[in-house]
Specification:
The complex is a heterodimer of chains A (about 250) and B (about 325).
Chain A lengths: L1 H16 L5 H18 L12 H31 L1 H6 L5 H29 L7 H30 L2 H7 L3 H6 L13 H9 L1 H15 L3 H30 L4
Helix pairs in contact in A: 1-5, 2-3, 2-5, 3-5, 3-6, 3-10, 5-6, 6-7, 6-10, 6-11, 10-11
Chain B lengths: L10 E10 L2 E11 L4 E5 L6 H8 L7 E6 L2 E2 L4 H7 E4 L11 H11 L4 H14 L16 H12 L6 E5 L7 H18 L2 E6 L2 H7 L2 E6 L2 E6 L1 H8 L2 E7 L2 H10 L7 E4 L2 E6 L6 H10 L4 E7 L3 H9 L4 H7 L7 H5 L1
Parallel strand pairs in B: 3-8, 3-9, 6-7, 7-8
Antiparallel strand pairs in B: 1-2, 1-4, 4-5, 9-10, 11-13, 11-14, 12-13
The chains are: A mainly alpha (about 250), B alpha/beta (about 325).
Chain lengths: ~250, ~325
């Protein structure tokens, strides 16, 4: 365990030394929150809309913060591979997985801090969490897990391609996932059939659904269960992909 | 320090092979290196030196064969091997955002050293490699090539390894940095009985440091022995003849076939190997005169490892050294001859 803690500490310290790798991600999340909340808040006036538009749009901002923060794991691994430090770490008795998990967990910690920051900002803007402090915490946990799922994906791409540009490009996959969903208006107001199909097969839809129930409408066991199940499933899938790529990249011999 | 010659400091390989597609980067290498020795692995770029080091240090699996390092199987007991060895690879691996002290402390802690002890180790090693007077806030990314090499060497030493692998440790360094690394390597071997596996493409480096040398070419070991043994195999003395043109050298090579059985032509020079060179010089000069070949210079010297290399591979190392030496004046091949 000590080796993972040491490598998490190293990744966190390095991230603090390069604030430029963190600040744009926070800025984008805050931008989403302000722009969509002020520009589209009249959606909340539509008949049948439950809660506030701030509570509805906040998950978009949080998922964006989580996914963007997760990309840091891939970037750290790519840099380590490029400058040879990855190999240097493999030459220590450190467990092979610690070399991968260090940056992944560090990026998850950073994205969690970003998510909390954005949520605190939303509280300042007048957000009332329908499920109280526990619901607030569960939203953070969901964002953290969703971020870990993307950290696994980012690590997989970094270890497979060993190319910074390719790994960076791969993180753009999250854009269709965010926008091919009930991103700006509830399901009932979407008329395009193709978007409904896309939203149904898009796992992000269920993360949004869980978060929105916690923030806007109150405890909803079904929404929570589906949201957590989809997030766990996605995180497990990308975690296995990252492990598989790690086995190849580290040429594990023991 | 216990038995420095024992298995815990030894390196062995049997039928070691590593293929990259159709290329046999390492092609059936056998090694038996007792503990406490400085073993020089000499060969040009692409000969297979780095690939073999990567296999022996557990970061690359062989295609076939078996190897043990410090008594442990490199494939089945990689963790044990890594605990026993220090490694400075040709591509220096440093995190550019960290300071030297942070890198050394992290490395020591990853090898299980407690934090307080790791702090002391870092301070001691910075003195050892002469980086103690560098601004402690300076990050590794701002270090010069020589400083990076020295820091990398320090990183390889944080856990007092029994065996040290140095993959071309002085390539591209200026003569002063190179001499400092040689001195440190010798000290580690003499004071701590550390086995040192050193790859190099510099003849002088192998000649000065190594107790035993293996010459590798195209993935195969083509000669092995102490520097003296290897040089004696080509003859006790060398007569080097210099000519005005490559054609003259080639003609001389033919003309002198009856006088010297062991010859190497290289560009405008011809090197002839004898037991006692001086006795043969009059005959050489007469033969060249009779053949109408004009001699521009003649020197008698001891055989060098380049002569050994020429003999076993049919080509010299000098051109590789010139390409590799970033700082041209430091070409050790020039110093050797």
């Amino acid at each position: 365990m000590n080796d993972i803690l040491l490598l998490i500490g190293r990744s966190l310290r390095n991230a603090m030394r390069q604030p430029a790798t963190i600040i744009p991600n926070i800025a984008i999340s805050v931008f989403f929150l302000f722009v969509y909340n002020s520009g589209l808040s009249s959606v909340a006036q539509l008949p049948g809309f439950q809660g506030t538009y701030l509570g509805f749009i906040l998950p978009v901002s949080l998922v964006s913060a989580a996914v963007g923060g997760a990309g840091l794991a891939g970037q750290t691994l790519i840099k380590d591979i490029d400058n040879g430090y990855f190999t240097k770490l493999l030459l220590t008795p450190t467990r092979r997985l610690a070399v991968i998990w260090g940056p992944m967990v560090a990026s998850a910690i950073i994205l969690t801090a970003q998510v909390v920051l954005v949520m605190l900002l939303a509280l300042v803007m007048g957000l009332k969490v329908a499920t109280g402090p526990l619901g607030f915490a569960l939203v953070v946990v969901l964002a953290f897990l969703w971020g870990m799922a993307f950290a696994g994906y980012a690590a997989f791409m970094a270890l497979k391609t060993k190319n910074a540009a390719a790994a960076q490009a791969a993180t753009f996959a999250f854009f269709p996932l965010i926008f091919l969903s009930y991103t700006f208006v509830p399901k009932e107001y979407v008329t395009a059939g193709w978007l409904k199909v896309a939203a149904t097969i898009n796992p992000t839809t269920y993360v949004f659904g869980s978060m929105r129930s916690l923030l806007n409408t109150g405890w909803d066991a079904n929404a929570l269960l589906v949201g957590f199940a989809v997030t766990f499933g996605f995180a497990t899938l990308t975690g296995i992909m990252a492990l598989w790529a790690a086995r190849g990249a580290t040429k594990m011999t023991s | 320090m216990g038995d420095h010659n024992g298995e815990e400091r030894s390196i062995t390989a049997e039928g070691m092979r590593r293929d990259f597609g159709a290329l046999h980067a390492v092609d059936g290498v056998d090694l038996e290196i007792p503990g406490g020795r400085i073993f020089g692995f000499l060969g040009p770029n692409g000969a297979g030196k780095s690939t073999l080091v990567k296999i022996l240090t557990t970061i690359l699996n062989p295609t076939a064969g078996r190897a043990t390092v410090a008594g442990y199987d490199v494939q089945r007991q990689g963790g044990k091997v890594r605990e026993a060895i220090g490694v400075a690879l040709q591509d220096v691996g440093l995190d550019p955002l960290m300071t030297a002290r942070e890198l050394l402390m992290l490395q020591a802690e990853l090898f299980g050293t407690p934090r307080d002890e790791a702090r002391k180790t870092a301070a001691r090693l910075l003195v050892t490699v002469g980086l103690d007077d560098v601004d402690p806030k300076k990050r590794a990314g701002a270090y010069s090539g020589g400083m990076r090499r020295r820091l990398d060497l320090a990183l390889a030493l944080v856990h007092d390894p029994r065996i040290l692998f140095l993959d071309e440790p002085t390539t591209g360094l200026d003569p002063a940095s190179r001499a400092a690394i040689w001195e440190e390597v010798r000290r580690l071997n003499e004071e701590f009985g550390m086995t040192i596996f050193l790859t190099t493409q510099y003849l002088e480096e192998a000649d000065r440091l190594a107790d035993e040398i293996a010459i590798i070419n195209k993935g195969k070991i083509v000669a092995q022995g102490t520097p003296l043994e290897l040089k004696r195999e080509v003859g006790d003395e060398v007569v080097e003849l210099q000519f005005g043109s490559r054609e003259d050298a080639a003609s001389a090579d033919d003309a002198l076939a009856a006088v010297a059985a062991n010859r190497q032509a290289s560009n405008r020079e011809l090197r002839l190997y004898f037991g006692r060179a001086a006795e043969n010089v009059p005959e050489l000069v007469r033969t060249l005169d009779a053949a109408g070949i004009r001699l521009q210079g003649l020197t008698i010297e001891q055989p060098s490892l380049d002569d050994v290399f020429l003999r076993v591979t049919g080509e010299g190392l000098e051109h590789e050294v010139d390409e590799a030496g970033d700082e041209g004046s430091a070409s050790p091949a020039e110093v050797t001859s």
